[in-house]
Amino acid sequence: MDLVKSMEVKGEHNHTEAKKYKWKQKLTPIGFISPVLLIFSLFLFFPVLFAFYMSFHQWGMIGTPEFVGFHNYVRLFQDPLFWTSIKNTLIFSLSVPLKVAIALFIAVLLNQKIRGLGFYRAAFFFPVVLSMVVVGLVWQWMFSPSYGFINYLLEKLGLPLQNMLIDSDQAMIVLIIVSIWKGLGSNLLLFLAGLQAIPSSVYEAAEIDGANSWQKFWHITVQLLKPTTLFVLIITLIGSFKIFDLAYVITGGGPGTSTMVLVHYIYQEAFQRFDMGYASAAAYVFFIILFILTLVQMRMFKSDSEF
């Protein structure tokens, strides 16, 4: 009996030790990442929750916040400048398909066996590593009506000079051109990675079946790149809605309000007029718009991406 009891006690002890070991295995990784989680929570989750709280208050960064309920949201939807900023942001975001198409086209070209391939890839990616402010200042100089390089070329070609930065109909075109140049490299690398993941045997089989270049591109490349295309579309759309640096540096939201985008509007309300509650409400409306657009895109591509 004593031997049986001792074996039972030993078995229970081993079981307890095993449970402790399992818990230790689970808690050890959490211990290692806890500093990152703390910083992440401090600088992301807390500001998000605090902004939601502030959207129902009126606060000028000094004093005690005053609860106003949904007044900030009502006021927001009644502000014509808010709707103007949404309209300008949507107009700017219409360039997303063009950005994706250009990146895909160049990626297909660079996926061929050509000399100097590394140089071309580095050249296209170079704008990505540049500061947005630097890019904005350089292109502001290039599009300058009086001494810009673009007008210099137009003059040499005998074409009429353009006042693109001070023309409300052309200023948005400038932002679109610069954003295409700036973001091309990152989309290009994503498409190149997707292209290199497509087995060459699929193209070889298509050639045996008599497919031409266009048929191979449309029925193989485009179809197999749909998961990559979905990802590129989503991040490019989000990036287009988040545009602020270029608009602020190149046009400052002008001429008039022709390039006043949504993030610039939120910045103006928060850090120039110090209406933090109102700006928080605008930020949450901005988040909801992005969330809905992302869901729509994912639903549109869902069945194709599963292929």
TrEMBL record:
Keywords of the record: Cell membrane, Membrane, Sugar transport, Transmembrane, Transmembrane helix, Transport
Keyword DNA-binding: no
Database matches in InterPro entries: ABC_transporter_permease, MetI-like, MetI-like_sf
Source organism superkingdom: Bacteria
Residues passing through the membrane, by range: 30-53, 90-110, 122-141, 278-296
An example Gene Ontology CC term for this record: plasma membrane
Location in the cell: Cell membrane
An individual GO BP term: transmembrane transport
Start and end residues of each ABC transmembrane type-1 domain: 85-297
Tagged with keyword Chloroplast: no
Topology term for the membrane: Multi-pass membrane protein
Sequence similarity: Belongs to the binding-protein-dependent transport system permease family.
Name under which the protein is recorded: Multiple sugar transport system permease protein
Organism: Cytobacillus oceanisediminis
